[in-house]
Design goal:
- The structure is a single chain.
- The protein is α/β, with parallel strands linked by helices and 531 residues long.
- The chain folds into two domains: 57-292 and 393-461, TIM Barrel (Alpha-Beta Barrel); 303-390, no CATH class.
- It contains 19 helices and 22 strands.
- The strands form four sheets. Strands 1, 2, 3, 4, 5, 18, 19, 20 and 21 form a nine-stranded mixed β-sheet that branches. Strands 9-10-11-12-13-17 form a six-stranded parallel β-sheet.
- Helix 8 (199-211) packs across helix 9 (229-242), helix 9 packs parallel to helix 10 (264-275) and helix 17 packs antiparallel against helix 18.
- The longest helix is centred in the first third of the chain and has 16 residues, at 164-179.
- The chain is globular and about 80 Å long.
């Protein structure tokens, strides 16, 4: 007898192959495909007539690491059909930290990206950290170790090159993290302290990752060179010289109207590296023309030399603020609409709640100052905890990235404030509703592959991402004709609709579009994705 039987659905199995009609049985978190109804018995039966049955969706770029510990129902993401998320991206991961104060400093410096929620406890090692999620949250969690904790653990928060001994110590921390289940190493080369690593340091660390069968997952160094191709060339060079598989996260078309506007130059770069040189390169992106991060993104990187306390010191000093203004043009130049495009959110102090959803220009007018001074003052008052999102992506060529065969889906979803980016609530349904159903830019089996088996293969979690005998019971049941994502930039907190059931490890987490209160997520480890 099955624990759960999903009957009579159109099974899109995640491989990219055409769908077929049948049933999916799950017993002890193990899938069996039933191609004909011959009276199978089950403790619970779901009638999936007129519905699509697919593997659970895998988000390869999630900023949920802290917020899900505070809110394990994780409604914005489970309503999208997400059953597994990769955390630790952008170099900003939260383990290992043998010094609790360093962990708290990492949370503070990254607070505008991943929040400062109340946590159920603290940890030091990767195993302790992964245990915080196991059977305690709604979705599975895969972990990639960021190079920021490697640097902090070996050499502190300083902006300098490591000594040979310090580099060896980073390699030791990296190896221990991967032995504990991390799928590789991430970098966020716009985010101190990990951004202080130069190319040679990253090549050296990536050789260790390659030797252990992991991946290099990178938010590239956007200000480098021409600010478009050159950052991605560095990522490919790291793969070329280390042998590590390279995954470029949120690879998206620029909206800067410059020399490289359009999809072809950057997609050619990735394709040539893969097809002509044999470098294992993949990428992800999200289907929106705006994106967000922490407001400290605009500050010169030298302000973080020493850690978050140094940023606060700089913000308090009028003379240093003058120098900061002069050095802020690089990050600002990436915005298509200037400070009018920067919508700010995530304020904890009551007197700053008036700025929720305002642009920096509007906030400056209220504060009777200019946008840069407003940015400085708000960061100082909020202990760096401010988030923003902005237009900066070329909407015209975005579909060419989303539909590209090397693309997989990463939401880059911030779950902060009253005005989080819309991708927090809509990324995966948008792919199906807009790119498949409405615009017919790709087939449904191909879209499902991009969200299931393809990322599972990349992350080395081999028993997820495909519906076939022996796989784990992560399943989504949805209405193809009615799946939708109503979230918008100006009204983001709207759950996606049309997803009837979400099953995680054989347990029903969403039933008729409602969360059941079950937290069935597991901590998935490299090459051993669960019992």
């Amino acid at each position: 007898m099955f624990d759960l039987l999903i009957k009579n659905g159109l099974i899109i199995d995640g491989t990219g192959n055409p769908g077929f009609f049948g049933s999916v049985g799950i017993k002890d978190n193990t899938v069996t495909i039933v191609r004909s109804d011959s009276g199978q018995k089950a403790k619970k039966t779901i009638d999936a007539t007129d519905r699509v049955v697919s593997p659970g969706f895998i988000d390869v770029h999630a900023h949920s690491a802290l917020m899900i510990l505070n809110d394990p129902d994780h409604l914005p993401k489970v309503h999208q059909g997400v059953t597994t998320e990769l955390i630790g991206i952008d170099g900003n991961s939260y383990a290992p930290f043998t010094n609790l104060e360093d962990l708290k400093r990492m949370i503070q410096i990254n607070s505008g990206l991943e929040g400062t929620p109340d946590l159920p406890g603290f940890w030091s090692s990767v195993p302790e950290y992964l245990d915080m999620y196991d059977r305690k949250v709604s979705v599975n969690i895969a972990y990639i170790v960021g190079n920021s904790p490697l640097r902090v653990g070996a050499m502190g928060w300083d902006q300098r090159a490591p000594t040979t001994k310090e580099l060896d110590k980073q390699k030791g921390i990296l190896k221990e993290s991967m032995d504990a289940g991390a799928v590789g190493m991430s970098t966020g080369l716009d985010y101190p302290p990990g951004s202080y690593a130069d190319t040679d340091e990253l090549i050296s660390l990536s050789k260790e990752v390659a030797n252990m069968g992991g991946i290099y997952h990178t938010h590239v160094r956007f200000p480098l060179g021409d600010g478009y191709l050159d950052p991605n060339k560095e990522a490919i060079e790291i793969g070329r010289k280390s042998g590590v598989p390279v995954h470029i996260t949120h690879l998206l078309p620029s909206d800067n109207k410059g020399k490289y506007k359009g999809a072809k130059p950057i997609l050619d770069l990735v394709e040539d590296a893969r097809e002509k040189e044999g470098i294992d390169v993949t990428f992800d992106c999200f289907p929106y023309s705006h994106g967000g991060t922490r407001l400290t993104y605009f500050l010169p990187q030298w302000t973080a030399d020493g850690g978050p306390e140094q940023i606060m010191k700089c913000l308090k000093d009028p003379e240093i603020r003058k120098k900061m203004r002069a050095d802020m043009d690089v990050g600002f130049a990436r915005l298509g609409g200037g400070w009018d495009a920067v919508m700010i959110t995530y304020f904890k102090k009551p007197h700053n709640q008036q700025f929720e959803g305002k642009t920096l220009t509007q906030a400056a007018e209220i504060m009777n100052t200019d946008p840069i001074e407003a940015l400085f003052d708000l960061l100082l008052d909020e202990d760096l905890q401010v988030s923003f999102h902005a237009q900066g992506i070329d909407a015209e060529t975005l579909p060419l990235f989303v539909q590209h065969p090397l693309q997989m889906v990463g939401s880059d979803a911030l779950l902060l404030g009253d005005f989080p980016p819309a991708m927090a609530y809509g990324t995966f349904p948008v792919i199906i509703a807009k790119y498949v159903r409405e615009e017919k830019r790709m087939s449904l089996p191909e879209a499902i592959r991009k969200m299931t088996s393809y990322p599972a293969q990349r992350l080395d979690i081999p028993d997820r991402g495909i519906l076939r005998d022996g796989m784990r019971g992560d399943v989504v049941v949805f209405d193809f004709d009615n799946i939708s994502a109503p979230a918008t930039r100006y009204n983001p907190k709207q759950f996606s609709t049309g997803i009837d059931y979400v099953i995680v490890n054989g347990e029903i987490v969403v039933d008729h579009g409602k969360h059941t209160g079950i937290h069935a997520g597991r901590a998935l480890k490299r090459s051993q994705s669960g019992p």
